[in-house]
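Sequence in, structure out. Go.
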Amino acid sequence: MNILHVVNISFVIPYFLGKQMNWFSEKGYKEYIICSPSDELEKFSKRYSFEYKPIEVLRKISIGKDLKAVVATYKYIKKVKADVVTGHTPKGGLIAMLAAWLARVPIRIYLRHGLVYETSHGLKRSLLVNIDRLASRLATKIVCVSPSVAKRSLDDKLNPVSKQVVLGNGTCNGIDIKRFCRDQINTNKYMTLKNDLGIQDSDFVIGFTGRLVKDKGIIELVRAFHSLRQRYKNLRLMLVGMLEVRDALPEDVVRVIKEDDSIIKTGYVSYSDIEYYYALMNVFVLTSYREGFPTSVLEASAMELPVITTRATGCVDSIIDGETGIFVKHDDKELYDALSQLYDDDIKRKEMGKKGREFVVGHFSPQIVWKDIEKLYQR
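Output:
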């Protein structure tokens, strides 16, 4: 079978697909990707065994460019004779589903990675909801990446229950439990990164990985950290990710991030090295307002880190409260208390970290997810 995936940016390929494509290729499937032009595409295609076509798939609405993307996707579907087309994220999903429907592809899968409209309002929210509904109508199957996304999708009447499915316990690709394992960390590489980032043995590192935007709860995290620094002088905050214009942080928060020497700013980090950044952390925080299924939380748990997160859609499925992590509200004072609790209790941190890895190993093995995906293809 010929499988075509449509994504908007190359950055998501290792997260959404990665070794899944190698696994399907070894089983005789032919894998293809449509993605906005990027220097990384050729490197990823060799690493993950797929062919690709650069087509501009914008995240924002642009009727002219979006129609061009639909036409180009339609032509590529015909060229590679795709048996299955999978669209990722609302925009990639809409373009993929529309082109695949026009091309009469028998299996059209819309992979719902989250609900972008959850933090939008007014006309924009209505537009985003209707885009999601249209992609769902054109799809033959909708894959929700978490139970809470599935529930919210039905509550908001995005699609009928008969079309919807969750893969295993959630996620779109599982977690590589061999890679995200402290026992597999190369000591020399770890020490080099630690020295490069200026982290001392006595430092207590609070970590975050992802886009540095309001939706991720960065404002609350920076404020809680600033207050904690008055109490714990050896605290460091490591922000692994980039500042973005879309959903940008307030200028005062950006200024604190840039000027505070106790905050480690890594900028963009290649996914191939991300486990070494987790290895340097003592606690992982994601106070997000919306997620599909926060892969970063599962990766952190697999690296035996206690996690502090919220009960937002997606996040609510990612930890066991009181066992692998702690739920907090979108409130810097509540986050302050949770971080203080974990800072002061070394035994609790280690117990949560150990149980967190057990939770990921037992529920989010990649093979479980990949076999469920294959069943969708075979239908």
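Check: The chain has a mean pLDDT of 96. The chain has two domains: 2-174+366-378, 182-363.
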